[in-house]
């Protein structure tokens, strides 16, 4: 792989982490009060890039004798073969102890396993140390999630990311952030926003402001403050507001990936293609900056813009982490070792799409910097305090009471919430 370089990223992604002025910006927890800690899996094997591997892992798990099953589980203090656990909301899974589990694998669900990395998860609370059921209760096709990224001093990359699938919420490095659903209830009802905020902003801009507008603005403009808290500047100028909301919508469309005609695409001539077939077992990842070529073992993808290769989250290069999570060695005999024996073609398609998304997101960074530099007068925390929007009531920082279906608890009992 001549000319390949693995130099630390420079420029593009780092420019996204613009320091916020704490005195004139609003802390994200005051805008979206309810947040949930990241999921804590406790073991790696219930998540995988492909659903077929998860079903094979489950079959190997339930097919083992009791002693072997205990080893395969990788027990923790929170989860053993005898731990009682309820079904996750909206999911069909067994509730008997794993020591007696049998039958088919609970149907895997799509989750965001890390920045820009959608994978599959076995949605069985008996396998997950902390699954955060309150998140599952509000998950539906209209829900959106804002995921704060871990703070790493001097590292570049966005402070928040968005997704439409349930996020695991773990950052690639640094202190874990928080998961903030846009809505507190299913059906896009009860926005997870400070009470009175939408009405105040509607009056400020002399136009209706809805929850999705605020979400888009936050996605476009959130940054780390000097206090390391995620902070958001709110403009007084309605034209600046509209430009920021439109920018956030563009970012959201890219981070959600879309489907069909909405799928992200680079213009002809700039689209990445497989120039040399990817090997069955890639032995490394590298980048040739001069040739704009991504090497995957002896395979070659080009053109790959330097901005896509350089894109970081919490100081970690996204493409490197995505590749590592599919090729890192697994302990022989463990359930994590049950995976495709060769590089699947769908992974190549996902990689091409990821390169496209990162390149297009990088192209939006100058627009964000321009907006930040020209934001002008701001709606300050003091103004929101005088309007009695801040401080946010404590009840808004707790989950809403949501139970529109029965939830089976341990041993077949039903939960009463």
What would you note in describing this structure?
- It is a single chain.
- With 417 residues, the protein is of the alpha+beta class.
- The protein contains 11 helices and 18 strands.
- It has helices spanning 28-31, 51-62, 66-73, 133-137, 197-205, 211-221, 238-256, 306-310, 318-327, 345-373, 381-386, and strands at 26-27, 47-48, 109-114, 117-121, 145-148, 160-163, 166-167, 179-181, 183-185, 189-191, 223-224, 230-232, 273-276, 285-288, 293-296, 299-302, 312-313, 316-317.
- It has a 4-stranded mixed beta sheet, covered by helices on one side. Strands 13-16-15-14 form a 4-stranded antiparallel beta sheet, with no helix packed on it. Strands 1-12-11 form a 3-stranded antiparallel beta sheet.
- The longest helix has 29 residues, at 345-373.
- The radius of gyration is 23 Å and the shape is globular.
Question: Topology, please?
Answer:
Layout: E1 26-27, H1 28-31, E2 47-48, H2 51-62, H3 66-73, E3 109-114, E4 117-121, H4 133-137, E5 145-148, E6 160-163, E7 166-167, E8 179-181, E9 183-185, E10 189-191, H5 197-205, H6 211-221, E11 223-224, E12 230-232, H7 238-256, E13 273-276, E14 285-288, E15 293-296, E16 299-302, H8 306-310, E17 312-313, E18 316-317, H9 318-327, H10 345-373, H11 381-386
Parallel strand pairs: 3-7
Antiparallel strand pairs: 1-12, 2-4, 3-4, 5-6, 5-8, 9-10, 11-12, 13-16, 14-15, 15-16, 17-18
């Amino acid at each position: 792989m001549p000319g390949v370089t693995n130099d630390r990223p420079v420029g593009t992604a780092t420019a996204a982490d613009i320091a916020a002025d704490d005195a004139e910006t609003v802390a994200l927890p005051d805008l979206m009060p309810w947040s949930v800690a990241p999921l804590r899996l406790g073991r790696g094997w219930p998540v995988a890039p492909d659903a077929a591997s998860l079903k094979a892992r489950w079959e190997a798990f339930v097919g083992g004798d009791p002693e072997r099953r205990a080893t395969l589980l990788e027990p923790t203090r929170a989860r053993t073969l005898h731990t009682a656990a309820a079904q996750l909301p909206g999911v069909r899974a067994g509730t008997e102890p794993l020591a007696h589990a049998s039958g088919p694998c609970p149907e895997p669900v799509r989750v965001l396993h890390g920045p820009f990395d959608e994978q599959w998860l076995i949605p069985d609370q008996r396998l997950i140390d902390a699954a955060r059921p309150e998140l599952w209760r509000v998950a539906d096709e209209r829900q959106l999630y804002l995921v704060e990224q871990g703070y790493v001093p001097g590292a570049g990359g966005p402070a928040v990311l968005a997704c439409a699938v349930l996020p695991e919420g773990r950052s690639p490095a640094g202190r874990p952030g928080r998961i903030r659903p846009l809505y507190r209830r299913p059906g896009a009802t009860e926005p997870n926003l400070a009470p009175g905020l939408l009405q105040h902003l509607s009056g400020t801009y002399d136009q209706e402001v809805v929850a999705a507008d605020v979400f888009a603005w936050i996605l476009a403009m959130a940054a780390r403050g000097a206090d390391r808290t995620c902070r958001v500047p709110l403009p007084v100028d309605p034209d600046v507001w509209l430009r920021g909301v439109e920018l956030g919508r563009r970012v959201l469309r890219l981070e959600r990936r879309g489907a069909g005609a909405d799928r992200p695409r680079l213009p002809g001539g700039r689209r990445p293609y497989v120039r040399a077939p990817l090997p069955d077992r890639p032995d490394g990842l590298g980048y040739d900056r001069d040739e704009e070529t991504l090497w995957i073992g002896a395979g070659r993808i080009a053109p790959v813009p330097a901005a896509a290769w350089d894109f970081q989250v919490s100081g970690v290069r996204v493409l490197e982490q995505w590749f590592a999570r599919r090729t890192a060695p697994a302990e022989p005999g463990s359930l994590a070792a049950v995976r495709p024996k060769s590089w699947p073609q769908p992974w190549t398609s996902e990689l091409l799409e990821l390169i496209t998304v990162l390149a297009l997101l990088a192209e939006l960074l100058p627009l964000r910097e321009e907006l930040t530099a020209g934001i002008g007068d701001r709606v300050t925390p003091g103004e929101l305090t005088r309007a009695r929007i801040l401080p946010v009531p404590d009840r808004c920082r707790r989950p809403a009471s949501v139970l529109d279906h029965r939830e089976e608890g341990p041993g077949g009992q039903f939960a009463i919430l």
